[in-house]
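In practice, a research group might receive sequence data for several interacting partners and want a quick structural hypothesis before committing to experiments. The following worked case mirrors that situation: the sequences arrive first, and a predicted assembly follows.
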Amino acid sequence: MSTQTFHLPDVGEGLTEAEIVQWRVAPGDRVEVNDVLVEIETAKSLVELPSPFSGTVGELLAPEGQTVTVGAAIITIAGADAEADASSGLSAHGEPAAPTPSEDEAAGAVLVGYGTGGAVTSRRKRPAARAAAVTASVGVVAKPPVRKLARDLGVDLAQVAPSGPAGEVTRDDVVAHAQQASVFRNIATPAAPAVREHTIPVAPVASVAPAAPASAPAGGREETIPVKGVRKATASGMVRSAYTAPHVSVWTDVDATRTMELVKRLKASPDFADVKVSPLLIMARAVIWAARRTPMVNAAWIDNEDGSAEIHVRNYVNLGIAAATPRGLLVPNIKDAQDLSMRELARALEKLTLTAREGRSTPADQQGGTITITNIGVFGMDAGTPIINPGESGIVAMGTIRQKPWVVDGEVRPRFVTTVSGSFDHRVIDGDGMSRFIADVASILEEPALLLD
Amino acid sequence: MTTTAMPFAKALNAGLRAAMTADDHVLLMGEDIGKLGGVFRVTEGLQAEFGDRRVLDTPLAESGIVGTAIGLAMAGFRPVVEIQFDGFVFPAFDQITSQLAKLTNRHEGALRMPVVIRIPYGGHIGAVEHHQESPEAYFAHTPGLRVVSPSTPNDAYWMIQDAIASPDPVIFLEPKAKYWLKGEVDEAERALPLHASRIVRRGTDVTLVGHGAMVTTLLQAAALAESEGTSCEVVDVRSLSPIDYGPILDSVRRTGRMVYAQEAPGNVSVGSEVAATVMERAFFALESPVIRVSGFDVPFPPAKLEGIYLPDADRILEAVDRALAY
Amino acid sequence: MTPPDDPALVRVLAADGTFAPTPEAERYLPLIDALADADLETFYRDMVVVRAFDRQATNLQRQGQLALWPPSFGQEAAQVGSVRAARAQDHLFPSYREHVVATTRGVDPIDIIRVMRGLTHGGWDPTDPRNGNTRIYTLVLGSQTLHATGFGMGLVFDGRCGTGDPTRDEAVIVYYGDGASSQGDVHEAMVFANTYRTPEVFFLQNNQWAISVPVATQSRGPLYRRGAGYGMPSTLVDGNDVLASYAVSKLALDEARAGDGPHAIEALTYRMGAHTTSDDPTKYRTSDEEESWARRDPIARMRAHLRSRGAAASFFDEVDAEAAAYADDVRVRTNELGGLEASDMFAYAYSDAHPLVQEQERWLAEYEAALEGGVA
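A structural hypothesis for the assembly, expressed as tokens:
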């Protein structure tokens, strides 16, 4: 036995309110189910409301003359039987409303015909922060497939220069932008410094005497070649370099197809008709350009006699090319290679190579190098950990360029791929510097057009 | 596979005969379908063969025909109603939409409504008013109805039988301009289910989609386009409710462009629905917006203007040009 | 409109319950004489119980438990008489106000309630034997006359009537009102019924009002005369006289089932209540008119007749108690009714699987699960 509340129903298919015209019962009256409680007036007619409960009238919740909204409580009846519970009427969704302790508040949700107005509640879960891209590309003209491509490649359409006839961003525009963005973090080429070189003092550290070399094993099954001449000089240079400079090697693979295309075009160009053009030319230009961006690879660690040390940073590039000659390994260099045009560089490379091959490289040719390229690609090698040429801080190994599977526009395609590797003196250059340098060299191989600065 | 060449109307006739032979509770009802064999002769010879209790020449009252067909279905029959012309279905519209479409749902599945309503529709026969309309959208829009439209005699032969076999009400739209189109009919083997769509011509540049008589026009347009160097794929929708989007989407994902052509007025049409759905489901494949080629949104004109009103190959190709310009 | 003193009128019980057959009623007297006392008591009980049910249902609407209720108040005799005249094998096509027709044939009153409560459009399965071949309500006026005629055509084609054996021959009775009689579908139904000689009775309850429009607007002449225009026998009966209603219905059904073709009956009665609970009759008719019809009430008339035949007071008290209990049971069971699932919306749109419907059902389930309080 409990107190039940009767809420004003919608008695006419979509009514929203009614006026209390006349109460037919008073508080304390005994009522039975279906006894008339009240007469109301709706927009359509006068209606008598019969009681859903038996019991004693508790409270009349709306006075005569008042207009009441559908769903509002109008009367309580105490001692009502549970089975006559009108709160098991239909909720807004046609399901029985769950009985709640305070039915008065649940007013509108309890009855059939609850009216057509009222507050709106939302069950929708607020979406988590929307992807920012929703509005970023509004205003950009691009077809749906292009938009998807941009999204897949992580390209902000608003940043892409459109080249389509209607001013739309094309597929190619997006791809090109993506490639630049992924490869180049900072394509600015620094201005040429004013001085040719400057010196960085280094804090003194105890030097470590190199270990004595082990003695050669006794003969019989082995041949002994006396070491002298070029080999001897090379060897001692290697030792000096290897055991003095802490060598760190880094490398990266790169799609050099555009380099190969450029080489092909240059070869076919009248300007280069009389000069040898090879990927080494592009590599040489790449190294020169990258060295300007990371000058420390073009520096040298100098141990002074007084025990102090300093780093000579050279703002010119004497580009050494490691050459296998009849006399042995030589590293002649092209002086001030940074000042040479492409044609001049091609010429210089050609001359250097020819001279070295003929065994006519002079000592002067081999002195003063600031950075070296060693071409192991001609031997079919991809990468190596070359020994830095004494007096330098970095050496780049050019690997073989051959077709390999590469991912382009989301599909696997054969491209000309090569590895750019190098070794660096970690006293002079840190990991980020050497990595950036190698990455820059690779960038050029991937997109030689960057040289058009 | 042996096939027989026969006109569309004869294929329907054969299909009806097969259905009536297989089930003695299949009934045909309509105006002039018995002795006359129907104004398009689709039911020719059937009353003579099955009697006037299986092929009924009804009173002239479309609502009455459909309403009593509903009652017959309640009593265990499978009525196949013929509405003589598209423009005359409207008196029966209430029985079709308020009753036929909803009775199964109203009975919560306890009652089936295996009623087929055959309606000759579409233009291109130089007819007077009310004899050339395309009212398919009203029915495709009504939940509870199935709506199909064969475009070939072979489809006509099989689809009428499948429609009769369906437990649901089927609006069976017959392109009247094609009644005398001859085609090969394979009476041994059904090619496709009732509600399947079909790629009828392969191509690479644009997908042309349509139903009923328009399929022929699409093929004509595709042939012309080919001579201009554009390769069009053509899809015959076959079923307007439900629509089988599989082949349509597969095609659009390959070509990236779509044109829907229909005789019906374009505003709020089947073509509009297909365009919206393709936009939604193949959005990232679309190189151009889906373009609709439709009848103009005016009452169907007098026959002398029919050729201008109805989309032809040129109108379709104009849409193809627009699509390719994107 | 049909004047109440039309000479074609069949009536055996006067308004005060006296047994006073009209001239046209003579041919029906044998059928009435064949009724036992128990039959008469049944008729009375049927009417009292349904009126209590009807009143309770109206109250339930006023209590917010039903969206709508179309009362049958005042039309009990026409409905009880006709439904009791139908045989077990017959098929009944109501409109939407024939509550006692449905319940007498076996439909659970709660199933009618469920329709008005917004739980179902149909309510019951007409092919379930326990529902006595009662078709569901039809809300589009007059549509059911075509369905009934078509059904009747099916009975003819299948030889389920006209064999001469009334215990087996099936018939159809279709109910409609004076308002619906103007609908084109009703005309077409009569055309088809007479062309195909369906075993059918068109039972028109002329309750004088189509919502607020009086029957005079529907017809200049008496409605029962239309039947003859179609070539079928047509009878006018006092719809507030349960005995006359029974007799004319029985004869018409038995002649129809025997192969005579369709018959039409116009039962004159009165819609004592409003059209539905949304209606307000005070706006268009007078209390004088209502009172004049109250003096011709079908239940009062039958009670007087039964008393005159020696029915005990206890019988009437028992019937009242039974009616009260019946109505209260409906009230209690209505309050216990559950709700619907979203999936109910999709389950029956088609008999065969439909991809668009299935897709939308799936979508809705996922959508609901993603809302606050949703169950995945």
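Before designing any experiment, note the following. Residues 37-62 of chain C form the longest helix (26 residues). The CA atoms of residues 54 and 146 of chain C lie 28 Å apart.
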